[in-house]
Specification:
By secondary structure, the chain is an all-beta fold. Helix content is about 0%, strand content about 50%. Strands 2, 4, 5, 6, 9, 10 and 11 form a seven-stranded mixed β-sheet that branches. Strands 1-3-8-7 form a four-stranded antiparallel β-sheet, with no helix packed on it.
Length: about 120
């Protein structure tokens, strides 16, 4: 069983930055760790993912160049650095983990078995 706790959300002005953290308890080696977001009235969408086995990273097209996902295996933590934030980035951000040795669809909610409670990000114009 994997438990995930997100932190680092908050309110920023457009153009600002935030770093989200996802602290995991349980085995997350050789798993897909993803960040998703969901705005009110919209579906949950994949933002970025990383395969902890080899470090491969995956990004949604709209986030390439602005967001960076990384991991600290020693701390069992995954991060999402978000730069040049826009009002449309406003959403609840969720961390997710797949089962081991699975990362076939890293930006799809169906890939992931474990979810955190989310952290709110609000970007004002």
């Amino acid at each position: 069983q994997v438990q995930l706790v997100e932190s680092g959300g908050g309110s920023v002005q457009a153009g600002g930055s935030l770093r989200l953290s996802c602290a995991a308890s349980g085995y997350i080696y050789y798993t897909c760790m993803g960040w998703f977001r969901q705005a009110p009235g919209k579906e949950r969408e994949g933002v970025a993912a990383i395969y902890t086995g080899g470090g491969s990273t995956y990004y949604a097209d709209s986030e390439k160049g602005r967001f960076t996902i990384s991991r600290d295996n020693a701390k069992n933590t995954v991060y999402l650095q978000m730069n040049r934030l826009k009002p449309e980035d406003t959403a609840m951000y969720y961390c997710a983990a797949s089962k081991p040795y699975s990362c076939n669809s890293p930006l799809s909610t169906g890939e992931f078995s474990y979810w955190g409670q989310g952290t709110q990000v609000t970007v004002s114009s």
